[in-house]
């Protein structure tokens, strides 16, 4: 009789462990994250006549994504950049960049990135890969970003919410989107380095 009781006890324990694991997996769901507009920087650099790398910023952007930090699963992600918010600290140059030779911001006010796949780091380095489609001047083409999740923790002051800190970078060939002004005569570089730094808040 004792053997039967021991067997029943062990069987019950195994079933309870299995159910606990099932519940844990079911409860592990991705969260919605909103990029904090107060901590969202988008910078770019491109060669100018071979003399230097011209630096600039986009001052207005927003974004959100659905992500499970436990399983490193990204479901969706979208960033919208206001093309007219470009800033290089020179009014005439900024107006030129907003015009038809470059961003054509009046006709194409939004630059949009939509994520399609996230490949997390598996070597402990934190260097992950984010793939998606970049829509610029009305054309969409795939891009690949190197991405690092710097930190996830409750914010130490202020809103004190669960926060992700992220750095990402990619290089695009702007003529692929039809922006070819200054490329043929080497006045403005075809390669543009894009860098993103931001904090995202769990909703």
Summarize this structure briefly:
It is built from 2 helices and 10 strands; from the N terminus they run αβββββαβββββ. It has one domain: Lipocalin, CATH 2.40.128.110. It has 203 residues and is an alpha+beta fold.
List the main descriptive attributes of the protein structure presented here.
single chain, 203 residues, alpha+beta, Lipocalin, 8-stranded antiparallel β-barrel, 52% strand, globular
- Main pleated-sheet profile: 8 strands, antiparallel, barrel
- Protein structure class: alpha+beta
**Number of DSSP strand runs:** 10
Radius of gyration: 23 Å
Question: In CATH, what is the class?
Answer: Mainly Beta
The CATH superfamily is known as Lipid/polyisoprenoid-binding, YceI-like
Number of helices, counting only DSSP H or I runs of 4 residues or more: 2
Strand order of the largest sheet: 1-3-4-6-7-8-9-10
What fraction, in percent, of the residue positions are helical? 10-25%
Give the H and E element order.
Answer: HEEEEEHEEEEE
List the helices and strands and how they pair.
Layout (H helix, E strand, L loop, with lengths): L1 H26 L3 E18 L3 E7 L2 E8 L4 E10 L3 E2 L3 H8 L11 E10 L7 E10 L2 E16 L7 E12 L17 E12 L1
Antiparallel strand pairs: 1-2, 1-3, 1-10, 2-5, 3-4, 4-6, 6-7, 7-8, 8-9, 9-10
Written account of the structure:
With 203 residues, the protein is α+β, with helices and mostly antiparallel strands. It has one domain: Lipid/polyisoprenoid-binding, YceI-like (Lipocalin). Helices cover 17% and strands 52% of the residues. It is built from two helices and ten strands, in the order H-E-E-E-E-E-H-E-E-E-E-E. It has helices spanning 2-27, 91-98, and strands spanning 31-48, 52-58, 61-68, 73-82, 86-87, 110-119, 127-136, 139-154, 162-173, 191-202. Strands 1-3-4-6-7-8-9-10 form an eight-stranded antiparallel β-barrel. Strand 7 and strand 8 (139-154) form a beta hairpin.
